[in-house]
Structures are given as structure tokens and as C-alpha cells.
Amino acid sequence: MENLDQHQAETLAAIAEAATVQAIEAIRVSALGKQGWVSALLKSLGGMTREQRHSEGPKIHAAREAVTAALSERKAALEHAALEARLAAETVDLSLPASETPRGSVHPVSQVMDELAEIFADMGFAVASGPEIEDDWHNFTALNMPETHPARAMHDTFYFPDRDAEGRSMLLRTHTSPVQIRAMLDQGAPLRVIAPGRVYRSDSDATHTPMFHQIEGLVIDKGIHLGHLKWTLETFLKAFFERDDIVLRLRPSYFPFTEPSVEVDVGYTLVGGKRVVGGSGDAPDGGWMEVLGSGMVNRKVIAFGGLDPDEWQGFAFGTGVDRLAMLKYGMDDLRAFFDGDARWLGHYGFGALDVPTLSGGVGVRA
Amino acid sequence: MKFSLSWLKSVLDTKADARQIAEKLTSLGLEIESVEDASAALTKFRIARVLTAEKHPQADKLQVLSVDLGDGSPLQVVCGAPNARAGLVGVLGLPGAVVPANGMELRKSAIRGVESNGMMCSTRELCLGEDHDGIIELPADAPVGTSFADYLGSDPVFDVAITPNRPDCMGVYGIARDLAAAGLGVLKPITAVPVAGSFACPVEVRTDDPEGCPAFYGRVIRGVKNGPSPQWLQDFLKSAGQRPISALVDITNFVMLGYGRPAHAYDLARLTGAVVARKAREGETCLALNGKEYALQPFMTVIADDSGVHDIAGIMGGEHSGCTEETRDVLLEVAYFDPPSIARTGQALALASDARGRFERGVDPAFLDTGMDLLTSLILDICGGEASEVVRAGQPPLTRRTVAYDPALAGTLGGVDVGAGEQKRILAALGFAVAEDWTVTVPTWRPDVDGAPDIVEEVIRVHGLDAVPSTPLPRADGVARPTATAAQMTERRLRRAAAARGLHEAVTWSFLPEREAAHFADGQPLWTLANPISEDLKVMRPSLLPGLLVAAQRNLHRGASAVRLFEIGRRYLRGEGGASDEKPSLAVVLAGDAVPRGWDARVNGGKARAFDAFDAKAETLALLAEAGAPVDNLQVMGEAGAQFHPGQSATLRLGPKQVLARFGMLHPATAKAFDLDGPVAVAELFLDRIPARKGAGTFARSHFAPPALQAVKRDFAFLVDAGVPAADLLRAVRGADKQAIVGARVFDDFRGAGVPEGQKSLAIEITLQPVEKSFDEAALKALSDKVVAAAAKLGGVLRG
User: Cβ(A57)–Cβ(A38) under 8 Å?
Assistant: First the structure.
């Protein structure tokens, strides 16, 4: 069987030298194809004696296996090389930029309103709202500011020339306080609501804009007193600023719709020239700044709200949402809030996924 | 309200210093705005004696002084004051001192070649007066060498914000009363001695308007000499920020600022006939002391004589009859005016004054006589003269209010328990009378107190609000309940969805220039302010788009290449019966490049692509879906509005009438009106019209199991008239078999070669979902026939 050995050696050599998959295929056909030499040898087994088959059979099968294995191995190697070559050719410069996805933002006022809603929800407050174009009864009279009340003049009110069906002058609400009246009339007592929203004063300078945002809080229940107000405001400010060292200073003041009335200052510390809320205002680097107006709801206001002031009492407070946002997040120009400058919004705005939660903290750290 | 410490000490016996007083005032509710001490700025100025004064060698108007500070080593100082001379004792600013008037720091310098070691100062330079004609001249025995601040003595000035409920504290005396009640001293009694008149009042004084002027007291003082008032009075008034004018005027101002009691002094020579408080007559005017002429209306109270109006009662005196240096005989007016009348008149005339501020808040009706006594004795002391008897026309409202009080209220309303004895002490110190049964009688000077809560406030503000302990609000069991309403949740979702889609949330003005609002009015009547702060902020927006367009324009002008803005807010419409109808809305503005130019040629050939109507549609549908609108059932229809490109805009409707949103390209005319170059895509969602989500209320969703059998896709191409909306064909095809056809989408819209003129070829991919068994050839053929038949109803012909 010199013939077999020689064939095998030649075929294996050819396989080793084959440079393409096509060449491998040609070798396969010449060896293992119907007319191939291995197939011919296998066919020849039928004409052999039993002894010859015993001796030649294994050799022929071994040759077939050796060729098959060599073919397969060489083919895989060639395919691998071809793939490598193709992939090398497909190289791209991944330092090029990927397609840009624009990044949107949530306005600081909305973010802070969401934060406030989250904090107050934990204290059992729902969110109430009312019209911004109000009548003077809801905005003033029902809040114990009759027509000649000096406080009316202090409100710098925007008026419309219109009157409603009841002859009441229409105006832009100067505070969120009319929502107190609407909430009491609509929902009765007991009641715990906050009412954030736009308010308007005819006032414009570096720190005032004719439109700004306030949030009102109202609790009406039995046995509510000034101590509850103090606790609520302390608790709220601690949660909002995520600081335990919030110190409040309560000062007697005057609002027609509360009695007693209390103005609330919060202590701050000067850090690098900036006011950081926290600590006592009487500390060496400290000071007090006014953050909230509040008080026990005036009996007349409770009555205007359709409730019996002998049965129900409660407290109300109000503060500026824009100001809270500025204090917490460090903007220093109120006018920029309403400019719609995408650069400012991109910097001071919040991500869509920055949803305030109690477990994750209601604030978003820089 | 400004006053000096020495003024306060003239009525309050106290050892407290300025800081203690300031802190107490704030804690009492009399908020300190500032405490200023002029002397604090003068510690580096010293008293010095001029030893010699020689002419400056280089300058005619300058002198070279040798100045002694008492330490035996005189300093050389160059001075330009004409009164600088040897022997003068004045004030020297040393190097390092800062001149209060201009903030300049003094330095050793050479003036025209002569060394100068400081500056001899004028009163104006030290903010002590107006005099700048020469340097300060002190008495010859002034202690040379000592600090001028020490010599002057410190007299801090308090500036206190008085809340509108406290007319009693619009006088130093009322402030002193509060401080005394809070334990900061002893209130001195008012020592006005009644002055008996030596002759009958020669003028008839009466009130013909008992409603506006219930009481009008008058008295003549004749033979006065009106000149500058004495120094102490001038100093008091200056501390209050008032310019001394003349003794008579200064005295009325002193009584007003010191006791909250406005009064007026008329020059009797200027009056003719009876002086009467009455209503103004139609057409009457008054030239007031501020030099302005005011047209009066018949509801206003005035003081007039036979010749006409002399005084807008309780607000401002007239120019004509005011006191001057020549005044010899004066008529004093001490009256009580009805606070609401004063407020109405003041508001109508837009005229603010110290007197109005006090009368409209309510002066003490029991203080008329005391006020008259104070004025009379001061005038007699300072200006001399002889007083007539007092004429008292009318009666001030002297009824004293009583309040039924329960001392337990301090705890149940005020949140702090204050002992009954302490409460009584506080109330008595403030002038309240407390009966055995806790009926509290309110002092005449406290018109603000009319109920038990007011008494609580008096008690706790004097007791100290710091003493109120924090008390937790009662809390419901368990974790906090959800509180947000469906509308609030929708807004929150939309806001974050829009931000997640790459849009910046803007907050723009609710009011717009009339032109911009009118552009989006769509025929609705607008809300227009009667008193806008400017023409730019005048009309309430009927849409959020104009505000966002203006913001977009600003961004583009700042160089932004792409602007993506949205806003959620109200549009302001008119409701029934004159009420406001404010509707929640969301608007989007897309301007500039939707896709910037880039290196990747596969994306728009590497070129920038401007925003188009489909960008607006994508935002609209995505956001409507977030808001819970049934987006699959909406019809795309026209009539987006005149502000839109007529061929590239649409409305999305639920049924033919209910427009949930509009979107598309801005009309070029609108873009031009808003100064926007290039195409702008916009969208507006009317959130109020989105129906509430059905099935809300349960957490469990409807049953669903993914089908076990594989879905099959089939493509169809139909020739239809070019005017047939693709959505119509899609809906028809989809409806061909509502069970089997679970999806249909257009994947080609072709016009041109092979498609007849006026037609288009729409290619649609249909997804068929078998349920119980796979589709066989016959079933697929039947479905295909249904699809073709459905398309045929719209004139669609299957392309071969």
C-alpha cells in the first residue's frame, strides 16, 4: 500500500499549503469526493478477501480520518484568518462622538414645588389650587382686608377693568392666601393643605419681579395652636434643607388674616460670603433672614371660609418658592427664572429622574 | 419710623443700651430695620486747636495751619476754609480716618508742595449738617485732643418698621410704652399742663361733616414769633429724617412723631370767616404743601373757610395758609378723622403723607386735648404769644371696646402657658384694664384690638415668642397617604417626560404685550390689565406659545443652534359670569437644528436637519400618551389655527370636535411677528380636554398572556389619490379584520415614476396574529382579500 501512504502524504501537504477555502474544497473533492482516491480505496475493500480487508481496512479508514481532520482544521484556520482580516478592515474611530441625545431639564420652581409637596404629604397636607385671576372678595375681603384697609394699598395689586357677576373687582391674586378661603369653602374642616402657585405684585427691581411663586399652608382642626405652627415650620425647613441645625426665630408681626401673626426668621451662617441656612442667627458668623409669614388663622377668616371659629382653629403660613429655590440651590438672580435661557435652565434645572422622594432625600445635591 | 435714643430716653426711663433696645423691639414685633450711630464713624476725628495760620506759599486760597492735639507736638495741616484762623477749636481728621460724607480715607499728603497731616472738617463732611462754608467751630473750652465721637456723645438712631395695625407706635411714646411693658424701663408720664385761654377763640370752628370729621378742636395763639426751632427739637427731627423748617411747623411734627398725633397750624392772617370741616364740592381743588394741585371729589373731607379749601383733611395742608416766618397769629387744628374716609381719599389722590399714615390707621381719639396742650405749651415756650380758649366742635368716638377674655387662651391658641398674674401685668402695662371676670377694656390708642386672639397676641409677644414650645401636629396612623390629585399627577408625569425627551422646562410671564397675546387670541376676548407695570406685561396669555416663542427667539439670538423648550402652565380665558377660566396647558417650541451636522454621512448625509412638523408630532403624541390620552384613537385633522403653516400643521382630535392638541410648523407670518428666522415647529396640548384615564382606581391590569403562536407579517402597496391621508388608509386596513390584524404601519409613501399623476403609492406592513391555530394558505388569502377590499373603499388599488 505504498500508493496509500504516498497519496496521504501528498494530500496532507496540499492541505497544509492550501491558501483559500476554495482550494481546501478542491482537495476535499479530490480525496473524499465520489471520484476521490480515498473513496476509490474504500470501494476497493469490497473486492478484497477477508484477510486483506482486515489488514487494509483500518489503514484506509485511518487515511480518511486523517485527511478529514486536516481539511477541517485547515478550513477553520483559513476562515478565522479571513474573519480577522475582515474585522480589521471594519475598524472605526470610536473616539468620534456618538449621536447626541439632547438633555432636557425640569425648572427649579417645579422641582422645589415637587419637593414641598413630598415633604408636606408626609405631614398629611394635600395640594390645593385656585384661580390666579381672582376677585377682590377672595383676595382681600374674605382675608379680613376690607376696602379701606391700609394693607390693601401695600399689596401693589394688578387690577382688571372687569367685574364678575357679583360686581366684584377682578385682579391678579397678590398672594396664594385666597386658596385658604376656597379650600375651606370647598372641603370644610379638618383641613391640611398647601397651595403653591403664581402670584403677582406691581413691583419690579433687582429682587422683585411682577410675577413670582408662593406657597401657602393651612391647617384647620380642633385644638391647633401656635406651638403646632412652630413645629410644622421647623420640621418642614429641616426636611427641605436636609439639616438638623435649623434654628427659627419667631417675631410678632401683622397680617390681617392671622391673629396672632408671626414672622419667621431662619438662622444662617456666612460661608465664603454666602448665606448658608443653618445654625443660630446669633452666632458670630450668623444672621437672621425672614423666610415665612404665618400666624393663627383670624376668626373672621375662618367664618368667611364657612366654618365656626368657636369650633375650629388653625394656622396658616406663606413663603416664596423662588426664594426657597435660591436659598437652597444658590441662584442669585430672580429675573433669570423667567427668561427661558436654555444655558441657565441646563445649569440650574433638574434631571427628569431627579424625582424627590423621602427615602432618597427631597433635595438634589450639586 | 425713625427716632434717636435720646428722644426715646426723653419718654422712657431706661438703662438699656441701643443693642438691648433693638433686640427687644424686634421681639415685640416692632422690627428693627437698622440702628445707626453717626458718632461711630467719627472715632478717628479729634478735637484740635489752630495755633497759627499762615498763607500757603503757592496758593492764594489755602492756608498752612499748625494744629495742636494737646500732646505738645503740633501737626502741619493745609486748609482751604475761609474761617480757619489762629485760636479756632475745630475737628481734625487724622490719616486713616474715613470721611463719612464721601467714604474717602485721609492720608498724609503734600498739597501744592506743602505737607499736610490731616484735614480740618466741615459739618457736611462729617454728615452732621449741610454747612460747608467753613470748618466746624467748637466752643473755645472744648477738650482739645479728645475724640470727636466722645465729645458729641453717641446717639444711635433706630429705624423701626411699624406694622399697619399699630398706629400707637407711629409715635415714640407708643414705642416706649411697649418697651416698658416688656421690662426695659419705666414710661414717663406725659407732662402737658392744660393752658387756660386768656381770650375767646376769634375764629368760628365747626364740623359740617360729622362722618368724615367727627371732632375738630381749634385754638388761636396770637403774637407768636416764628423762627428756627431750638437745637434739641431740630436734633430730634433730624434723627427722624425730617428737615427742620420753622418752630411752628417743627412743633407740629414733633407732636406727630413723638406722640402719633398729627395736627395743623394755619396762618390766621390767611383765613377768612369760619373754618369748617366739610365735604369737598364738585370742581374744588387744593394746592397742597408739596406744591401739587389736587382735584377734590365730593366724598373727600376738607378744611375750608369762606375763601376756599385750605387743607385736604388729615392728609396734607394747603400751600396758601401754611405758617411762614411772617406768621404772627396761628390757628391750631387738632381733629379726629374717620380712618376709612382718609384711606379712600388718600388712595384716590395717590397722596401719601405722615398724617395720612396715622389717621387712616386710627389715631387715639382720647388724645385731642392732650395733643392740644402739648402743642400750646411748646408754642408758648418757643414762640411766645398768647393762647385763646379751645373750641371743641363735635365729639371723637370715645366708646371703649371690651373683650371677653380667658387667660387659658394663651395656651390653647398661643401655645404657651403664661400665668394669670403675668398676663394681667402685661395687659395693664400696655394700658388695658382687666376686670375680675377677665373682661378686658381696650385702650383708646389700640384700634386694632377687637377680639380675644388680639389679647393673646399682646400677652405672648411681650412674654416672648421664644417661649412657645414646638408641638408636633397629630399624625395619622401608618405611612403618609397619597395626596396628589389626578391632574397634579398628570402634570408631574408630563413635566418629567418632556424633560426626559430632551426639552428644557421654561417658566415664562403670564402676561404679554398686547400684540403677542392678540396673535394667539383666536377670537377669544382677552384679560387686559387696567394698571400694567409696562406695556410688555399687559395682557394675560391665551396660549403658552407666544411666551415660549419669545424665549426661543432670545436663545437663538444668543447663538443657540437648537432650542427645545416646553412650559406647563395656565392659559387665561374668560369663564361664565365674568369669572376667570384658567386651563392647564403644555406647549413645546422646537427651533433651529433637530440634528446638527455631523461626521456620520448616514445621518442626513452629514448635514444639519431643521426641526419639522413630524418632530412636533412626535413630541405631541409622546406627551399625550404620558397624559393618558387614547393616542391610537385620535384623528389627525386640520384647522390648527392661523398661526400655523396651513399645509404643515394639524390638530389631534378625540371625535370631530374635541381638539386635544395642535402641532406643526409656525406660519412664516407668525415667525416674522416674533422675529424668528427659519422654520419653527411647535405643539400645544390642551390638558383640560384629555379625558380621565379609564379603569384608574385599581392596581390590577386586564388579563393578558402573550400569544403562543407566531405572528405573520404581510406587505401591501396601494395606489390612492394623493389627497387621501395615510392615516385614513391605515385605519381602514386595520379595521379589515379586527381580530387577526394586530398592527399596521406605513413604510413607504412614494410619488413619481410608475405612479400616475395625482396619486401616491402607500406601502403598508400588516401584522397578523393567529390565536388558536396557525394561518393556512386559504386563511391568509381570505385576510389579504379583506385588506384589499378595505383599501378599495378609499379608492385604493393594490399595486401588482
Answer: no
